[in-house]
């Protein structure tokens, strides 16, 4: 006999399945069957565990379970786990209702009524069994063959603006999974082959992004006293409404870090565009107008830093050359090979297979992304005081950069938005791995 239901915990904390109850609900008829019977119309109604079934009380069965589900674990409910309700000969009742009662880490209990035989997807908020709960949970019902699934989600949202706050100071940045965006500044109204983002830098940071990929071109190719740096994407401007500049982006970053000093943001800077300025010219402008006036706002060291060192700061990822006579700044990312599926260079290990020549190559991109996630997950990172000496630690390994983006200007099917639609659906089964961007 097939399992009745699979309960899965997709919250970040342990959930205890306290009890299971089965009964025929007199308020639900077969013609109005749903994934979540509507006997309790108000999801916030506080009611006793055993419903008032009247003449149908003989159908009620209960079993205490006390099974703890760690995050992402599941529990399979077999038919013999709890007896079927006694049949009622002359009944217009729907199929059996299953009531699940759970308890979270704060010993707060919640319950949900579900119909495991229903054939459509559905969702419902768990009913709290105590007033003013500090948490809330949502049940998602999936009628997956051969066994239906009931997924438990936390209904409250974490504060993505401060997600680094709880991380230990001793973590090297290479040991942290850091979400980033490609061509982060291309959120303005522009050609679809140029536009890679839909929200501005401030919104990206508030939603947890901590790696920004910025491409610039000096407004003046000869005069370093002019600080203006155009934002570009390859040879193209990033807005149809006029030139956009680097300064507002950095202002948004500075403001964000002032409000959230526990965070750090990696900023990759690269010279692109059709202007005649050189990397040396860009380096001089950045040094004179950005780094030297605000040393407290930037980490420009050449080695992967520990989180404690860079909280409240921007970390320079340098994708432009600096003449040997000038001060060397930032994590050197100048020489990794173009269109690389796997390249180790200096402080970085990179996957940036970006030339997706036709839509049929998108699965290749997903394969390279997944392979790089596996490589990153296999790395052992040295944490001072944990698995290396606290005073003289083994140096950090490389930072794994995993670009999920790609495009081909000459094929509509491979413009950034088209590729993102495939990638964002999830082309791999594993989640983000440690130490990847």
From TrEMBL:
A biological process term (GO) from this entry: lipid metabolic process
MF term (GO), any: phosphoric diester hydrolase activity
Domain Phosphatidylinositol-specific phospholipase C X: 169-319
Gene3D superfamilies given in the database record: Phosphatidylinositol (PI) phosphodiesterase
Entry superkingdom: Eukaryota
Name of this chain's protein: Phosphatidylinositol-specific phospholipase C X domain-containing protein
Native organism: Didymosphaeria variabile
